[in-house]
Design brief:
Layout (H helix, E strand, L loop, with lengths): L3 E9 L3 E6 L2 E6 L2 H5 L6 E11 L2 E7 L2 H10 L7 H10 L2 H10 L2 H4 L7 H15 L15 H14 L4 H13 L6 H15 L1
Parallel strand pairs: 3-5
Antiparallel strand pairs: 1-2, 1-4, 2-3, 4-5
Protein name: Holliday junction branch migration complex subunit RuvA
Organism: Solihabitans fulvus
Family: Belongs to the RuvA family.
Length: 199
Amino acid sequence: MISSVRGPVLAVGLDHAVIEVGGIGFAVQATPTTLATLRRGEEVALATALVVREDSLTLFGFADADARELFRLLQTVSGIGPRLALATLAVLEPDKLRAALADGNITVLTQVPGIGRKGAERLIIELRDKVGALPAAEGGPVPTEGRGQIRTQVTEALLGLGFPAKQAEAAVDGVLAENGVSDTSDALRRSLAVLGRKR
């Protein structure tokens, strides 16, 4: 398995780039966003996934390992091949895709050409519980579309600790309304502080 490539960019096409590694030029399929960051002659490092078929070996490149893992995860769903998985990441940034899956947002998922309502529902059913296991991007406040997942996880944690549902939900909603919440553990810590003051 070729998990990454590093070397000078020999050429950039509409759907791929050619990167020289050890004197060999590798054609790497990538999203327009990733390709836009590449410049001919400049050194680049990409996380990659090799897809093996009977008649071809195709290398897909990503700006980071997070996008590559999402690419692999998407292909575990029936009807989603590498091309459609790459198209999904071309339309939706990894954080937005993760949030749409976690929140069950069919409208966002059907923005991807080739994914209809049934396909979006299948993605949500099969991947909703798996996307939370992927490492979230570090730093910065949580995007609005990612807050639904955090709200659910933190509320469930508080219920598990014995807080009443209404009290837990009110505390979490109050915390998420503030700026600067970075992730689930941060939201849980702040919610516990709020509930501790009320006791």
